[in-house]
Amino acid sequence: MSAHNRSPDARVRATVVALLAASSFAVAQTTADPALDARVRALSAELRCLVCQNQTVADSESPVARDMRDQVRTQLASGKSEAEVKTYMTDRFGDFVLYNPPFKATTVVLWAGPFAVLLLGGFLLIRRLRKSSVAHAPALLSDEDRDRARAMLNTKDLSN
Amino acid sequence: MIPELGHFALVLAFFVSLASAGVAGAANLRRGVAMADFSRNATLALFGLVLLAFICLMISFMQGDFSVVNVATNSNSLLPMQYRISATWGSHEGSMLLWVLMLAGWSAAVAIFSKQLPDVLITRVLVVLAAITAVFIAFTLLTSNPFERLIPAAPEGRDLNPLLQDPGMIFHPPLLYMGYVGMAVVFAFAIAALWGGRLDSTWARWSRPWTIAAWIFLTLGIALGSFWAYYELGWGGWWFWDPVENASFLPWLVGTALIHSLAVTEKRGAFKAWTVLLAISAFSLSLLGTFLVRSGVLTSVHAFATDPKRGVFILAFLVAIIGGSLTLYAFRAPKVNDGGRFGLLSRESFLLGNNLLLVVAAGAVLLGTLYPLFADAFGMGKVSVGPPYFEIVFVPLMLPLIFLMGVGPLARWKDDEGNLVLRRMLVPAVVAVLAFVLCATLAPRFSPLACVGFAFSAWLACGIVNGYRDRLRHASGMASTASKWKQIPIAYHGMQVAHLGVVAFILGVTAVKAFEQEYDVALAVGATKPIAGVEVKFLGVTDVNGPNYSAKRGSFELIKDGVVLKTMLPERRSYVSQRATPMTEAAIDRSLARDLYVSLGDEVGNGQWTVRVHYKPLVNWIWLGCLIMALGGFLGALDPRYRRARRTATLSNSSSVPAAE
Known about the structure:
The complex is a heterodimer of chains A (160) and B (661). Chain A contains six helices and no strands. With 160 residues, chain A is an all-alpha fold. The longest helix of chain A is centred in the last third of the chain and has 29 residues, at 108-136. Chain A is elongated. In chain A, 24% of the residues are buried. Chain B is α+β, with helices and mostly antiparallel strands. Helices cover 64% and strands 12% of the residues of chain B. In chain B, helix 8 packs antiparallel against helix 18 (620-637). Chain B is globular and about 80 Å long. Chains A and B meet through helix 5 of A and helix 12, helix 13, strand 1 and strand 9 of B.
């Protein structure tokens, strides 16, 4: 694991620009189309700025991020869908560029893990609680009684 | 001379901590002797020495002594005095020393405020703490010595990272570290309890105020960090799910679970083994956070000082701590009588549900944070896991938690009846549905997210009101409402206030997420940008000079219905030391209802500047909510039963002597 991309690196940028085929950094940021603006913002919030330490394309002010935003805008404006733009980006930069990792074989654990653990934990918990409440029902001694008895016995069972 | 004095004090502190842990620990293990006074005095001496070392470093920074490597790399003769002081902990070396200082400080607090605890227990707690301190001092001295000299001295310092030159950064690291390190005290109590094999409700009562104290600092530290990121990083977000942020969030989640589980252990004697496991995990996650931040294995916006060598040291320590404490746990925990039977529908069950959700949430955050590392290590390619993932996974785990927060506090301990529980849920459910409908009809646009958020806040708020009504109705006797109110223990207020903080927090988060407006525009002088019922007029840019930077200062007028409300002056600063990356200083018009956020970008030719204009409804409620949560924690820790413990303590003291083998 290298400590990659600590600072905007001119070479990386040149590569990115070349890959994006973005020739200019024209300020295409003001348009009279708020719907397009919103789409550009939403999509660039899911893309990783490739030269930043850990920032989305939407947040970053680096020139590369600006180029990528422009690319997203140009492509969306030309009628491409979000999915097509994402494919365009992953074709060039790999899954690394997506902050929302796609669901596939290598990310099954990532996506399903938390919910599987929750289900398993919930199942074990409820089974345990059932058992404990069944054990609880026919108890002849109340808990207070048992506590008092334990206090009288000076709880030697816990110490060694 | 002063750096050498500090260095010497730190070396001495290392030997004091080693002696304290070694002598008292061995005496207790081999002869069953409790050297409480020795441990207390050694701890106080340790704190004094570390404090001396810290003050020496601070003086070097204040004097701008560039013959010290750490000062030369993190300060500058132009740096204003308050930032020279905060630069003491602005670097990796300095923040490790701060970490050690906090640890020694917590240990000293335990030594001073634990007069009512049995000698055996307090000795063991202090032994564990001294051992941890010894490791961290060794780490500081061997891999990151802040007192290292630079010969010949540098003529000028390289300056403190401009991002850190901010009032928020003076207080954020100390608060956060207080929280992280406070978990060490909780850990030490857990280990001491396992050591003696005595896990009981008195143990829970003793560790509870310390847990809450650590949790308060953690809450405040995280909130302040988020607040700082919001106005200083310049792009208006308040949480980025960055590895470093997650590292602080993990112990918070587990610490929150721990506070709730300790409540059950204290009141009902149940979940003992689970509670100890949580106490061990909370501290382990604090250490893991340190490892992630310090080693640089993960790329982060917050990584200011990283070095793989240091990572190896902390990783080794982490393995030793987790491995050692889990082994001890494996030996002792099965012997623990997990007492306290309870029914499927009871407050215990609801609290177990809370614990499950919080722990799974922490697990999800941990998984998402470490996944890029695993993927890389196992050759699955480079992946990024960012905000979209965490939001998708985290929110579904939090909704049931908020649901439980609404019913749990009302449920009876031990056993409750299904239809009673349902009946208590009726009014909050109706109110929640009403809130959903109101939000759907009144909001500027329909947002399912916001409506769900508002409905859950209403549910929770209603649950809090119900809780108080219940308390007043069932208070003893025919007393007046006022005197019934006085009978409510302060810890109960603490819980309800903390939950109220969650209500404010949810409102803030969902309102911002659903209704914020962001524009990234190029404005010419004289142009206006309408946003959320006001207009932002661009008046121009002037040059200004600060002590160690020069800046472009934009001037904007906030206009509503033709009336100028306010002039806003965002800046774009170039620090003398770091010309290449300008820093944005956003101008924010704050109010409880909304923030209006303007930050200045680059000049783009023909007199136009890129400008970011954000409208952030209810954003301040996020941090306000955190403050209220912390206040709730404070009230909870004030409960007199923690100070009344003396009598019960002496009772169990007599019974704990034979326990000391």
